[in-house]
Structures are given as structure tokens and as C-alpha cells.
Amino acid sequence: MRKTQKKTLITYAIVIIAYIILEIFMKAGMMSSHLKGLLVPMVYYAIAAVALNLCVGILGELSLGHAGFMCVGAFSSAIVSQLLSGAIPDALRFILALIIGVVISALFGMLIGIPVLRLNGDYLAIVTLAFGEIIKNILNSIYLGVDSAGVHLSLKSQMALGLADDGKVLINGAMGITGTPQDSNFTIAIVVLLISLFIVQNMIDSRDGRAIMSIRDNRIASESVGINITKYKMTGFVVSAAIAGAAGVLFSHNIATMQATSQYFGYNVSIMILVYVVLGGIGNIRGSVIAACILYLLPELLRGLNKYRMLIYSIVLIVMMIINWSPALRDKRDKLRKKLMKGAGHGAA
Amino acid sequence: MLSFLNYFVSGLSLGSIYAIIALGYTMVYGIAKMLNFAHGDFIMIGCYMIFTIVSTMGLPPVAGIIVAVIVCTILGVTTEKVAYKPLRGASSPLAVLITAIGVSYLLENAALLIFGADTKSFTSVISWSGITLAGGQLKIQGVTIVTIAVSLLILVFLQLFVHKTREGQAMLAVSQDRGAATLMGINVNKTISITFAIGSALAAIAGALLCSAYPSLTPYTGAMPGIKAFVAAVLGGIGSIPGAMIGGLVLGIIEILSRTYISSQLSDAIVFSILIIVLLVKPTGILGKNIQEKV
User: Fold this and answer.
1) CA separation for the pair A328, B154 (Å, rounded)
2) Among A96, A198, B21, B291, which lies 20 to 30 A Cα-Cα from B155?
3) Nearest-CB residue to B106 (from A125, A311, A321)
4) Sign of torsion over alpha carbons A16, A17, A20, A22
5) Across the interface, do B105 and A314 touch by the CB < 8 Å criterion?
């Protein structure tokens, strides 16, 4: 078995074992309802972290708009679920909502990618941040309804929609979406996580993945050996956006009332996901899952820590970045490692 | 027509504030080649300093502004030394950007713990009530006039500083080619420190003006203006001092006019759409230069 395959299988095994243990706890009634409520959010933030790690760690571009892609996935899938509610079986409806949510997020990813991926530098970070804010603003100010006559859209108020008696309000401006069927549960969330991991891991190990990583390591060198920079960057970014959309689908089907507020979809959420990625290790997919789960659960379990949580995270973030990336510290570490290796070699001889 | 003029003037005022913030952004970006994500939070720290000095301790506003400028300058230089300098020359350009986001997060949450989450009502540092034109129909507030004047003064000062002093010349050299500048005997570390000092001092002044015009202060006050000022810097051409000024003014006017005539909820979306359009049409901005990358 190849080394990468082995690593990937261990990741799946960790997720499945964690799932089984938590399920046993739940079935045995050893889990408080508060903790039960945290399980699905924990998994969708892990999925979002995997998506962002694909963008930051593998593609080498920073996105601060992953909460925006989650928002797109959440709203589009919630609309699909509401429209199809009662018309088709629940399981089929959720699968359809998931697919549509993912596809629409991917489309938005492409839309954002076209202007930005041609440029290098910090533009992607700021444009994705802008995109997230645009989506949030637009969703907060539109009213969308449907009745027998068709779809109604307004920017003013719910009354301005002019719905017939059989009409249904889908997006109620800043009030958001109410009454999305509660289709996601822990098992479904874990399945989506496993699928996301499968997609990302296979992508990294494929020819495309190697091309993407070569662009990250040296753009000019990879361009000169004939790698199509824009195409591969776009592939990576769109897949990342699509997976973040899947996290959004789980989000919207787990919450009764959803608004496009900054608490749920602001750039602060994107930064929180970035904290999971950095603390789990940039480019380390398994690390992202573990970091997201631990960092999500820890402050919820230790309520007293909650006040200082963000302060601690930010300090840890800065310290981790400096320790891991500072050229001076890297040199020192390499020297130390060489010394230790030498010492170990002598000991063996 | 007169109401349009009124809105236009308040757009100019908001734009001048964006311009002052954008000047700091654009200088740091041009010289240190990094996006200082925490720049907006320096503004917030400056505002809290003024608030503490003026409203809590009852000292005159001038004292507040001086303390805010000093604190922000020290904060900016220290941040650069502690958090950004070790990452200079890191193999990934993301490292310093993520660290800057961490600093931004740290400042916001530290302010949250120290000053609390409640909105503080900020007393304007300018007591002049302003002038009335056209028989009382066109009223221009004192803070508006001061803001526009201060931003113009800063622009002139910065242009003179960059083009006439040795330190300014050193900045230009470092922004063009850091390696060559080092070889010519320019102290790159000192130059970057000066840049951060100026940028952060400007952030404190921008904060005083921002909170005088929009007197509600929370730990997140600086974040959005900071991001919008970056949009302004990109619009004007990142790295260009007059560009930041033009970008800031244009952005402020667009924001106020779209808030008035289109939709108050969509104004942010419109402002951010401008960024995407600029990057599509002219990624170098209005006054930016196209720099070819050498291998």
C-alpha cells in the first residue's frame, strides 16, 4: 500500500471511529441535549475547514469568503427544500437540495475566480471577503415568494411581493428563511464529511492535484513547463467553494430560522474557519478535521473559557504562524534536526 | 439639487476619511509588500484612546488626539517588529497575511475584554458647528470641513515627505527594489518602521475624524472602514499616494449616493462590487503602474 493511501485511510478511520463512539454515547443516553445539538455544527465546520484547507494549503490562495459560499449553499438548498416540501420523499429531497446547493456554490466560486485568479498577491483574500459581504447584503434585502402565478421578487417588503392566497414566502428580507425541513442529522453530516474528504484526498493525489501544488510552490516554473495556471487554480478554487457550499446545506437543514447575519455568515466566520485550518496545519487535511472538532467543542464545553476564547485563538494563531513560517526559526530548526540525527546515528553505531 | 449637494458633501467627507486610511494602507503595501489587515483596528484603538482621555478623564480633545497618535504609532511599529518582521522572506506570502488577520482578531478581542461590547457614544473632537449656505438650505458641518481640509493637508505633507526628504527617498527605493536598496546602503528595517509609524499615526487621525462624524464606538468600528479603505487603495492604484486620495474620495461619494438614492442595505454591496469591477477592467487601479514580474 502506498504511503499516501495509508494516510488517507487512517483519516477515514479516525472519522468513522469517532462517529461510532459518539453514536454509542448518544444511544446510551450519556450525552446532554446541549452536546447533541453541537454535533452537526461541529461536522459542518469541519467540512468548511477541509474546503478552506484545499484553498489555502493546496492551492496557496487565501479565501476569506468561505462563509459566503456556505451562505450561498445554505440559502439555495433551503429554497429547493421548501419548494419540494411534500412533493417528493424526504431523502430524495435532501439529496436534490444538497446537489443544487453544491452546484450553485461552485458556480459562484467560478464567478469570483474569473476576475481574481488571473492576479496574484493578496487580492483573492480581499475579493472573497467582499464577495461574502455582498452576498450577505443582497440576501438581507431581497424578498422572494412563490405562488401559482410564478416567482415574485421584491427589494421593498413582503407585502410588495403581491402573493396570491396560495403563495409562500421563501426569503423574507432580513428575517431570512423560516421553516426549512430539518433534514440534516449527525449521520448525514458524517457521510457528507467523508465524501468531501474522499474528493479532496483524491484530488490532491491526482495529476491535477500535483499541478495545483506546483503552482503553489512556484508559479513561474510551473507555467514554463506548460501547466495551465488559470485552469488549475480555477479547478481547485471551484471544488473548494463547492465543498463549502455542502457545509452550508447542512447548516440550513439544521436550523429552523436562518438569517444572513454576520453571526452566521460574516467574514468573522471565515476567519474562524481559517483558525481551524492554521491550527490543524496548513495543507494537512486530517489536521483540519481534528482542529475544527476540538476547537468547536472545547469552548462550548468549558463555558468559563468562552470570554477569552477568541483572544487565545488569535494569540495562538500569530504564534503558530511565526514558529512555523519564520525563515530564521526554520533554519534553526533544520540545524537542530541535523544535529539530533547525527547524534542518533552515532548512538546506533 | 441642493439636497444632492448636501449628500455630495457628506460623501466627500466620508471619502476623505477613507482616503486617510487608504494612504496608510497603500504606503505599507507599497513598501513592506504586505496587506496589513489590522490597519482598520488601529483606527478603533485610536478612537478608544480618545474616548478614554476626553469622555472618561475630561481632558481636552487635543490631548486625546495626541495620545491616540502616539499610542497608535507605538502599536504599529511594535506590531511590525513582533509579528510581521520575523515572517519577512517567508516561503509563502500567505504567512504574513494570516498573521495580520491574527493581529486584527487579537486587537478586536482585547478591546472587547477591556472596553466591553456596548456601544460607546463618542463626543466629537470638533466643536465648530459649521457654516450654512444658500439661505440655510445647504448646511455644511464643521467636522465635514475639517475632515476634508485635514485629508488634503496630509496628502500634501506625504507628497513632500516622500519626494523631498532622505527618508522618503529611501521609501521609494525600498518599494521599487528591496534588494537593490539594501545594496545602496539603505536601512530597510528602519524604512519599514517609519512607514508603519506614519501609517498608524494616520489611522489614529482617521479614527478621530471617523468617530466625530459617526459617533458610535464598538470594538468592530474600524474593521469595515478598514476594508473599504483597502478597496479605495486598490481603486486608486495600490502603492500610489495620490491614487489612494482619489480612490478614497470616489468610494466615499459612491457609498453615500448609493445609500441615499438606491438602498441603504445594498450600499456596502455596491461598494464591494466596485472592487470586483476594477480588478476585472483595470487591475492596476486608476493611477497604478503595471509592474512586470521578473524571473
Assistant:
1) 37
2) B291
3) A311
4) negative
5) yes
Q: How far apart are CA A214 and CA A227, in angstroms?
A: 9
CB contact under 8 A, A60 and B92: yes
SS3 of A65, please?
A: coil
Question: Is A176:A257 a contact under the CB 8 Å cutoff?
Answer: yes
DSSP string, chain B: -HHHHHHHHHHHHHHHHHHHHHHHHHHHHHHH-S--TTHHHHHHHHHHHHHIIIIIT---HHHHHHHHHHHHHHHHHHHIIIIIGGGTT-SSTHHHHHHHHHHHHHHHHHHHHHH-SSPEEPPPS-----EEETTTTEEE-HHHHHHHHHHHHHHHHHHHHHHHSHHHHHHHHHHH-HHHHHHTT--HHHHHHHHHHHHHHHHHHHHHHHHHHS-EE-TTTTHHHHHHHHHHHHHH-TT-HHHHHHHHHHHHHHHHHHHHHT-TTTHHHHHHHHHHHHHHH-TT-SS----PPP-
Closest chain A residue by Cα to residue B267: A137
> Is B229 a residue whose pLDDT tops 80?
yes
**A349 pLDDT tier (thresholds 50, 70, 90):** very low
B25: which 3 cell numbers?
494602507
Measured in angstroms, the CA of A193 and the nearest CA of chain B are apart by: 25
| Number of domain units in chain B | 1
How far CA A5 is from CA of A10, A195, A214, B192, in Å, comes to 9, 16, 20, 46
Taking phi over 0 as left and psi of -120 to 50 as alpha, with beta for the rest, A137 belongs to alpha
Task: Report CB contact under 8 Å: A119, B283.
Answer: yes
Q: Range of B150's domain? A: 2-124+138-281
Q: pTM score, two decimals?
A: 0.88
Q: Is A116 on the interface with B (CB under 8 A)?
A: yes
Name the residue in chain A with its Cα closest to that of B280. A115
- What confidence tens digit (pLDDT) does each residue in B266-279 have? 888 999 998 888 88
**Complex ipTM more than 0.90, yes or no:** no
Percent of chain B with pLDDT over 90: 56
Is A311 close to B109, i.e. CB distance below 8 A?
yes
> What CATH number did the domain enclosing B192 receive?
1.10.3470
Cβ separation A325–B293 shorter than 8 A: no
**Residue B130 domain-assigned (yes or no):** no
**What confidence tier does B247 reach under pLDDT thresholds 50, 70, 90?**
very high
Q: Give me the sign of the Cα torsion angle B55, B60, B61, B65.
A: negative
> How many angstroms separate the Cα of A310 from the Cα of each of A271, A299, A306, B78?
11, 10, 8, 21
Q: For A301-323, what is the mean pLDDT?
A: 83
Q: Kindly state whether A125 is in contact with chain B, defined as any CB-CB distance less than 8 angstroms.
A: yes
Domain boundaries, chain A: 38-301, 314-349
Q: Does the residue B79 lie in any domain?
A: yes
Interface check for A111 against chain B (CB to CB < 8 A): the answer is no
The answer to which of A166-170, B34-38, B185-189 has the lowest mean pLDDT is A166-170
Closest partner residue to A314 (CB to CB) among B106, B227, B234 is B106
Query: In the predicted model, is pLDDT for residue A347 greater than 60?
Result: no
Tens-digit pLDDT profile for residues A223-260:
999 999 989 999 999 999 999 999 999 999 998 888 88
What is the distance between the terminal CA atoms of chain B, rounded to a whole angstrom?
55
Dihedral sign for Cα atoms in the order A279, A285, A291, A296: positive
Nearest to A318 among B106, B113, B280 (CB): B106
